[in-house]
Each structure stands twice: as structure tokens, then as C-alpha cells.
């Protein structure tokens, strides 16, 4: 394993928050390198060499460049087996934890990008209505999984990858002023997660490149 | 858990759904016999996935859904990992080496969250409605080529005979259906020689052929 400090190429908002939370739970100290996606810094030659998909985040750790938030977090958990175990040991619970994370990762976030791309054609009102619908569908699916698996957190009483993906997703939903009363388990769990130092320290507002929109 | 007593697994899926196809390959590689339940995503009634009955099974209104070991699972990547976690017979789908695992999963997610959502049937229908046919083609060209370019760059560091070294992994299960979809949308995949080469190695394997859309009960070729 490399003795150099890991480097996280990321931005204060978006999916990068998930990795910051995981690094915090695993107590991994790292160097924060800001890639300002509003200024197109993900398209520089320097960054493209690190991540050919021109996306954030990228975690440079143990001599590798890791991309894609789910594999990054799973790699951290597999190679740093300290508590909390972000991927449950039980195979049923592993699948459920990953499914919750995937509903956000591939089942919600990309579709929201699509809707935003169509913003001009849809108009502001329709765009917001569709963003809301997309969030609600995803949250409804997550809420139904949580009915089987939740305790204090998404999977029993221990923090997992599911909680890590939920935090930024709920944060985004609140910014969109979506009513979360229909998702009582998600609300309850997120309220608890929001109190944790690992979530507070890694919040977009606290990052060096935070900008008020 | 005594799996021997569990009922025959059921896979709700659609022959052309790339996410369903990935799971079909996994089930085949693990030699798991299952019942195929067709969900017609493009039915004239507006899509069977929107029915009350199906929504109860999956509020996200998507395929695939796998009923196995008396539990219902959604999301193709976790489903495939579950099969690998719980079945030691057949092909290993994820390496026990954390670095190789990460490399396979990065490729799987590049496809799963980075390409597929931008070109699935639902999204393309919406693009067609909002932007028209010409823009739809532009959109498909843009997102498919963007994703394939990233995939090709990734493969430079990982490719052996297959996506990651010489052993089949979850990355390969995602690649074959995505390449097929890209070709359907008239993308020239030979522009990506590494992707093309891996695909050629995989598409001739019996377990991949078995899972191919043309060989499913709801395939158009079987229902003429």
C-alpha cells in the first residue's frame, strides 16, 4: 500500500459528498483537491489523465485511481475493515444495502441529470415537476426496502453504504422543497444521520470550495 | 438458510432490457434454473411495468426483479453480487482480490449509471417527445459515444482476454448488453477496438448466447 496520503478530487456539491462521508467513517485522512465543475475543470488534460470520463469524484489511493462512488466506497470498506462495516456481512442485507445505494446511484441521479438537460424544452415548471416525480419514485422504493431492513439506520443499527447514499439524496430533495412526510423512515433515519460528525464535517457548506448559489 | 428447499427463482424481466440481460447471464453462469416472467415494457397499453400489480412488486416500476431464496431483490448489480455471494457453483463473477473487484465494479458502474440511464427505452421515448427525432439521434450519439470512450480508456488499464484480466467478471456481464444496445442505435463500436475485442470474445460463449434477447420467450423472433 502506498504511504502517500490519499487524494480526493471532488467538488463541494453532488455525489462527491458520499465519498467524503465514507472516508470520514473510516477515519482516513486525505488531501482535498477541488475540481470546479461549474468552470469545466473536469475537462482539463490534467484531470482527464486521472479520470478519462471527465467526472468527479476520483480517489487516488494505494497507488490506484478509483472512480465511481459505489466501487470507491466498497473498496474502502474491503481494505479498511474497521467499524462501521459499510457493506453488511449477511448476504441478504448486503444486497438490500447495495440496492438502496443503487436506487440513488443509477436509479435517480442520472435521470435527474437527463431532466435538467431537457430543462429548456420542458420549461421550469415541468422540469421541477419531473424532478420531484423522479425523487418520489426513488424514495418510495427505498422506503419499501427500509420497511424490511431498518433499525436506527437503513440496515439495522449500524451505518452502511445505504445511509451514505441517502444523506446527499435527501439533502438534494430538501433543496428542491420536496415534501418528505410520505417517507417517514427516510426522514427519521436522515434526521439521525444529520447529527453525526461524519455527516456534519463533510457537508457541502463546510468544504473549502463551497459557493453560495 | 437452507436454499435447497427454496422455490424455483422467478425473474421478472424483458428480453431487450439490458439490465435484465445482465442478470440472465449471471443466472446462466451460475447454472440457476428460473421461471421467466415477461414484463412488456413497450406494450400498447403503455407498458406493463406501470400496472398496479407490478408496481406492488417494485414501486420503481422497473425490471429486473428476482425472487430467490424467498426474497425479492431489485437492481441488477446488487442482484448479481448476491448470486455470487451465495452460490459457489458455476463461474465466479467477482474476484476475491479487492483491487480486481474494484476494477470490475468501476466498469460495471460506468455502464450501469453512466451509459444505460441515458439511453434506456423510457428516456428515449421522453427525448423523442420533447426534442424530436433529430435531437434524439444526436442525444444517443452523444451519450453512447461519451460512455464508450470512457469505457475504452478504462479497458486500457484492465483488459486481458475480458474486461479485467482473463477471468469473466461482472464488468463483462454489463458490457455485452450495452454494446448490443449501442449497435441497435447505429453506433460504430469498431471505433472502440478494446471494447469490440472483449465483446467478440464474450458473445460466442454459450452462457451469454443463452441469455441473448433473441433467445427469450418474449423475443420478437419467437413470437412472429
UniProtKB/TrEMBL annotation, chain A:
Pfam families: GST_C_3, GST_N
The GST C-terminal domain, residue ranges: 90-213
UniProt keyword terms in alphabetical order: Phenylalanine catabolism, Transferase, Tyrosine catabolism
Enzyme Commission (EC) number: 5.2.1.2
Residue ranges of every copy of the GST N-terminal domain listed in the record: 3-84
Family: Belongs to the GST superfamily. Zeta family.
Official protein name in the record: maleylacetoacetate isomerase
Taxonomic source organism: Brachionus plicatilis (Marine rotifer)
TrEMBL record, chain B:
Gene Ontology terms describing biological process: glutathione metabolic process; L-phenylalanine catabolic process; L-tyrosine catabolic process
GO function terms (MF aspect): glutathione transferase activity; maleylacetoacetate isomerase activity
Limits of the GST N-terminal domain: 7-91
Pathway this chain belongs to: Amino-acid degradation; L-phenylalanine degradation; acetoacetate and fumarate from L-phenylalanine: step 5/6
Gene3D superfamilies: 1.20.1050.10, Glutaredoxin (3.40.30.10)
EC number: 5.2.1.2
Matching PROSITE patterns: GST_CTER, GST_NTER
A Gene Ontology cellular-component term: mitochondrion
Family according to the record: Belongs to the GST superfamily. Zeta family.
Name of this protein: maleylacetoacetate isomerase
Species the sequence originates in: Brachionus plicatilis
Lineage: Eukaryota, Metazoa, Spiralia, Gnathifera, Rotifera
Amino acid at each position: 500500500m502506498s504511504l502517500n496520503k490519499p487524494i480526493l478530487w471532488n467538488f463541494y456539491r453532488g455525489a462527491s459528498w458520499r465519498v467524503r462521508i465514507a472516508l470520514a467513517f473510516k477515519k482516513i485522512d486525505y488531501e482535498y483537491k477541488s475540481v470546479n465543475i461549474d468552470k469545466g475543470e473536469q475537462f482539463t488534460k490534467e484531470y482527464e489523465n486521472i479520470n478519462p470520463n471527465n467526472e468527479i469524484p476520483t480517489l487516488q489511493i494505494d497507488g490506484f485511481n478509483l472512480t465511481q462512488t459505489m466501487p470507491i466506497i466498497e473498496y474502502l470498506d474491503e481494505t479498511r475493515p474497521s467499524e462501521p462495516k459499510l457493506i453488511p456481512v449477511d448476504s441478504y442485507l448486503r444486497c438490500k444495502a447495495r440496492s438502496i445505494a443503487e436506487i440513488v446511484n443509477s436509479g435517480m441521479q442520472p435521470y435527474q441529470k437527463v431532466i435538467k438537460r431537457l430543462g429548456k424544452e420542458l420549461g421550469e415548471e415541468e422540469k421541477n415537476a419531473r424532478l420531484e416525480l423522479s425523487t418520489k419514485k426513488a424514495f418510495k422504493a427505498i422506503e419499501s426496502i427500509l420497511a424490511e431492513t431498518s433499525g436506527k439506520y437503513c440496515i439495522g443499527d449500524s451505518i452502511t453504504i445505504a445511509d451514505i447514499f441517502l444523506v446527499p439524496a435527501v439533502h438534494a430533495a430538501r433543496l428542491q422543497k420536496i415534501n418528505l412526510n410520505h417517507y417517514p423512515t427516510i426522514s427519521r433515519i436522515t434526521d439521525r444521520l444529520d447529527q453525526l460528525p461524519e455527516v456534519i464535517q463533510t457537508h457541502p457548506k463546510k468544504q473549502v470550495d463551497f459557493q453560495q448559489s | 438458510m437452507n436454499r435447497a428447499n427454496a422455490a424455483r427463482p422467478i425473474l421478472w424481466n424483458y428480453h431487450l432490457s439490458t439490465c435484465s440481460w445482465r442478470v440472465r447471464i449471471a443466472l446462466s453462469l451460475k447454472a440457476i434454473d428460473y421461471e421467466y416472467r415477461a414484463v412488456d415494457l413497450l406494450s400498447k397499453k403503455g407498458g406493463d411495468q406501470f400496472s398496479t400489480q407490478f408496481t406492488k412488486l417494485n414501486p420503481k416500476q422497473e425490471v429486473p426483479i428476482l425472487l430467490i431464496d424467498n426474497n425479492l431483490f431489485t437492481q441488477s448489480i446488487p442482484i448479481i453480487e448476491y448470486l455470487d455471494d451465495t452460490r459457489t457453483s458455476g463461474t465466479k463473477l467477482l474476484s476475491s482480490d479487492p483491487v480486481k473487484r474494484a476494477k470490475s465494479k468501476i466498469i460495471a458502474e460506468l455502464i450501469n449509471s453512466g451509459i444505460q440511464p441515458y439511453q434506456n427505452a423510457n428516456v428515449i421515448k421522453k427525448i423523442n417527445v420533447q426534442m424530436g427525432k433529430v435531437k434524439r439521434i444526436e442525444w444517443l450519439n452523444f451519450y453512447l459515444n461519451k460512455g464508450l470512450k470512457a469505457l475504452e480508456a478504462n479497458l486500457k488499464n484492465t483488459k486481458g482476454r475480458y474486461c479485467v484480466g482473463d477471468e469473466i467478471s461482472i464488468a463483462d456481464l454489463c458490457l455485452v448488453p450495452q454494446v448490443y444496445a449501442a449497435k441497435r442505435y447505429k453506433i460504430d463500436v469498431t471505433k472502440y477496438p478494446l471494447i469490440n475485442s472483449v465483446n467478440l470474445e464474450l458473445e460466442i460463449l454459450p452462457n451469454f448466447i443463452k441469455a441473448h434477447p433473441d433467445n427469450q420467450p418474449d423475443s420478437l423472433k419467437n413470437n412472429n
